[in-house]
Write a structure and sequence with these properties.
This protein has about 625 residues and is α+β, with helices and mostly antiparallel strands. Helices cover about 35% and strands about 25% of the residues. It has 16 helices and 30 strands. Strands 3, 4, 5, 6, 13 and 14 form a six-stranded mixed sheet that branches. Strands 20-15-16-17-21-24 form a six-stranded mixed sheet, sandwiched between helices. Helix 15 packs antiparallel against helix 16.
Length: about 625
């Protein structure tokens, strides 16, 4: 029951304030934030020391569960029952996890094929959704302890390059935690919101001047770059790019691989000795942090001494940093923006504390990055601001986000027909009309894909459904309207409707597998590198589709006009149809087009003659009465 306040002076009833919190559900750490006195702040733990809560869970042998700092202490003591980096598992299949190279200390179950992963603990099986829900419950408990009231509504942030399945998984985790996720916000966009509030607070800008900013977000497991324009309180995302499998964890991994190779230690030790695996993983994390402030690092595990200097570490991570810069360049190109047009570069995520990262970003954009706001907290702060907007307490801010990859359906021949293009503003809605390709077709399968290539085989399938019981009609007669509705969270709903009969199917796409790092992070560059080949493949498939339709129509024409055509005409038409049929089996689209043209030239006069005969036959014995 809601509690209402009564103003004792005038007797008016004051509407209770809606409390919506902002949550950054991170790979390494998670935070919860709320607005206080008009400014966002991150809620600290019971010890009052830090707002960061490690995204780590520990299950004891009696079924008990602890989350956060206490669970972190169990990483080495009991690695098999201590779960971390859950965010990297969200929406992933077992085959997507090869890049982790056995570093995980716990057991991930391989459910054949493309099924989502599960984690086994004490003979119990947990999905990443369930594990993330426990982290959210701990954050919810923290904020409720701070405010003394029950919290049921939240805004949660995700990497900009999270696909539809990963966003759905995040929303489902919120439901399991007893939270109504009102909005899912891209992390770089949330950071920009926090930056905007910070600027206005510090008096650097009146808010009326237009600024173009780049948000470089490198966390524990993911990387995003977004180009935004801010003017008069409107935060408009111009372009985004990134990699859902690139972050500080990968910095640790290359250092671990280096140490194992340097000391001639077999990599099998990572999977066979879990305690050692966790010790070296935590040591790599410690080295990474230490080298941000000192030139060398050295420590021991047993009889092994692990050391690295700053130059060696920077050399190891250089290829990973280069991958982030490639994403930055693609985002700038998509935004049609040069580096000199960027007013500020905002650094987000704990991994941006690495000096080499800061220097590389500064070199690319030609200016030192803006990192006055805490990179660990800035995303949660932005989530709190977005929550305040949804609560109706912020009237002067507007958030315009985008979708990072194109969405479309598969058409005849395996072609990708894009309905919503990448970098489209969300929420958005777009549609197109299609028809059947076979006479009497009663069912139509709609397969939904995400990606930038012309052929669906190179893109990622999000899901499919069947529009059933279409009234049987000749091919090409049904009019099927397919609408894509992409909401503000970036979650897709697809509606298919046969316009003549009114038959309709509406589903929310819930795919069954995740996206690998290559398929997500390199989709855009892949489409550029293969543009020429894709165009040739598309041209061939389109030619084949056109030829197959003509072959079907030609056969039907001969059957329906047998009495009208001479034997020579029928024989010549059949011969040309055979030539066209053989041409479709080849790989030269020009040969197909020439065969189509030759057939059309010969059959067009026949079709006109047949039409005249059929009209005369139909009109025999009928009178035409002219208007007077």
């Amino acid at each position: 029951m809601a509690t209402y306040s009564i103003n004792l002076k005038d007797g008016s009833v004051e509407k209770p304030q809606t409390i919506i919190v902002g949550i950054d559900l991170g790979t390494t750490n998670s935070l919860v934030a709320i607005m206080k006195d008009g400014q966002p702040y991150c809620v600290k733990g019971t010890d009052g020391k830090s707002a960061l809560m490690p995204s780590i869970l520990h299950f004891d042998r009696d079924g008990g569960l602890i989350v956060g700092d206490e669970a972190r202490l169990k990483l080495i003591e009991d690695p098999a029952h201590t779960i971390y980096s859950v965010k990297r598992l969200m929406g992933k299949s077992y085959k997507d996890l090869d890049a982790l190279g056995g570093v995980l200390g716990y057991t991930v179950i391989d459910d054949e094929g493309d099924a989502l992963v599960k984690v086994r603990v004490n003979d119990q099986f947990y999905t990443p959704i369930e594990l993330s829900a426990e982290i959210l419950k701990a954050l919810r408990k923290r904020i409720e302890s701070e405010l003394g009231v029950e919290i049921t509504k939240a805004v949660v942030t995700v990497p900009a390059y999270f696909n539809d399945n990963q966003r759905q998984a995040t929303r489902d985790a919120g439901k399991l935690a007893g939270l109504d996720i009102l909005r899912i916000v891209n992390e770089p966009t949330a950071a920009a919101l926090a930056y905007g509030i910070g600027v206005m607070r510090e008096g650097e800008s009146t808010g009326h001047e237009s600024e173009t900013i780049a948000v470089y977000d490198l966390g524990g497991g993911t990387f995003d770059i977004s180009i935004l324009q801010i003017q008069d309180g409107v935060f408009e995302v111009l372009a985004t790019n990134g990699d859902t499998f690139l972050g500080g964890d990968d910095f640790d991994k290359v250092l671990i691989d280096h140490w194992l190779q340097e000391l001639n230690i077999d990599k099998k030790i990572l999977t066979e000795e879990k305690i050692f695996s966790q010790k070296i993983r935590l040591l790599a994390e410690e080295a990474k942090k230490a080298l941000s402030t000192q030139p060398t690092f050295e420590s021991k595990i047993g009889e092994h001494t692990f050391s690295i200097d700053l130059a060696g570490f920077e050399s190891l991570i250089a290829p990973l940093i280069a991958r982030t810069l490639d994403c930055c360049k693609r985002a700038l190109a998509d935004a049609k923006c040069e580096t000199n047009a960027i007013d500020k570069v905002i650094m987000v995520g704990g991994s941006t504390r690495v000096p080499k990262v800061q220097q590389a970003v500064a070199d690319l954009f030609g200016k030192p990055p803006y990192n006055d706001l805490n990179p660990d907290e800035v995303v949660a702060l932005g989530a709190a601001i977005q929550a305040d907007i949804l609560a109706g307490n912020q009237q002067d801010l507007l958030l315009l986000d985008i979708t990072p990859l194109s969405l479309g359906i598969e058409t005849v021949g395996g072609l990708m027909d894009v309905i919503i293009t990448r970098n489209s503003k969300i929420p958005t809605k777009a549609g197109r009309q299609y028809t059947t390709s076979v006479d009497g077709q009663k069912n139509l399968k709609v397969s939904v894909f995400q990606g930038e290539r012309d052929l669906v085989e190179h893109n990622r399938k999000l899901g499919e459904f069947i529009l059933k019981d279409i009234p049987p009609m000749p091919a090409g007669m049904p009019k099927i309207d397919i609408q894509f509705i992409l909401n503000a969270d970036g979650i897709l709903t697809v509606r298919a409707r046969e316009l003549r009969s009114g038959l309709e199917t509406l589903i929310e796409i819930k795919p069954t597998y995740g996206i690998t790092e290559e398929e997500m992070a390199l989709m855009l560059i892949d489409s550029i590198q293969n543009a020429s080949g894709d165009m040739q493949a598309r041209g061939l498939l389109e030619a084949r589709n056109e030829a197959n339709n003509i072959l079907l129509s030609g056969t039907k024409f001969l059957s329906q006009n047998d009495a009208i055509l001479s034997e020579l005409e029928k024989s010549e038409t059949n011969a040309l149809l055979t030539i066209l049929s053989e041409a479709t089996k080849g790989t030269d689209k020009d040969v197909i087009h020439r065969a189509i043209e030759t057939l059309n030239e010969y059959t067009t006069p026949l079709a006109h003659r047949a039409l005249d005969v059929n009209i005369r036959t139909a009109m025999m014995g009928k009178k035409v009465i002219a208007d007077r």
